[in-house]
């Protein structure tokens, strides 16, 4: 592995709090998975950007993927609004389901604001050499 392909060179990940919140929401509401991704060449401070995929290509690209759930405080992740439970609890009336979906969209928007403010200070990256702890720095 070339020195600039070694993710253990990373000391900190810089990311947008909005990207972390949006990636989490995307993975909850859509097929596929959204992560924060850093790509080689690696150096001390890396920018991690939102990346959506259906097939994990990290072995081919050498990229590092970080789950947005690892970047947002656990208590905020646990409070994510659950649409399926709300719909299951509602009666079969289509108007009620529409109302529930509207309330869910509002609750998700509120949750995203909380998530943007709850980005963690550090995260563990999974590397070929094992776990590697790095600082998380927010942008914006």
Radius of gyration: 17 Å
Taken from the alpha-carbon principal axes, the silhouette is: elongated
Strand content: 25-35%
How confident overall, as mean pLDDT? Answer: 91
Description of the structure:
The protein has a four-stranded mixed sheet. Strands 4-2-5 form a three-stranded antiparallel sheet. The chain has one domain. The chain contains six helices and seven strands, in the order βαβββαβααααββ. It is α/β, with parallel strands linked by helices and 140 residues long.
Task: Reconstruct the topology from this structure.
Layout: E1 12-15, H1 17-29, E2 33-38, E3 45-47, E4 49-53, H2 58-61, E5 64-66, H3 68-71, H4 74-78, H5 83-89, H6 94-116, E6 122-127, E7 130-138
Parallel strand pairs: 1-3, 1-7
Antiparallel strand pairs: 2-4, 2-5, 6-7
Helix pairs in contact: 1-6
List keywords for this structure.
DUF8009 domain-containing protein, 6 helices, 26% strand, elongated, alpha/beta, 140 residues, 7 strands, 3-stranded antiparallel β-sheet, 4-stranded mixed β-sheet, DUF8009
Compact overview of the structure:
This protein is α/β, with parallel strands linked by helices and 140 residues long.
């Amino acid at each position: 592995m070339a020195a600039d392909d070694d993710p253990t060179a990373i000391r900190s990940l810089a990311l947008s709090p909005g990207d972390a919140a949006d990636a989490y929401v995307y993975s909850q509401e859509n097929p596929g998975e959204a992560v924060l991704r850093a790509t080689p060449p690696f150096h001390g401070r890396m920018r991690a950007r939102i990346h959506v995929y259906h097939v994990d290509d990290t072995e081919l690209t050498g990229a590092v993927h970080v789950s947005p759930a690892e970047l947002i405080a656990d208590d905020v992740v646990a409070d994510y609004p659950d649409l399926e439970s709300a719909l299951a609890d509602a009666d079969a009336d289509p108007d009620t389901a529409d109302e529930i979906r509207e309330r869910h969209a509002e609750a998700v928007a509120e949750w995203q604001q909380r998530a943007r403010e709850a980005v963690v200070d550090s995260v563990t990256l999974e590397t070929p050499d094992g776990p590697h702890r790095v600082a998380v720095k927010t942008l914006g």
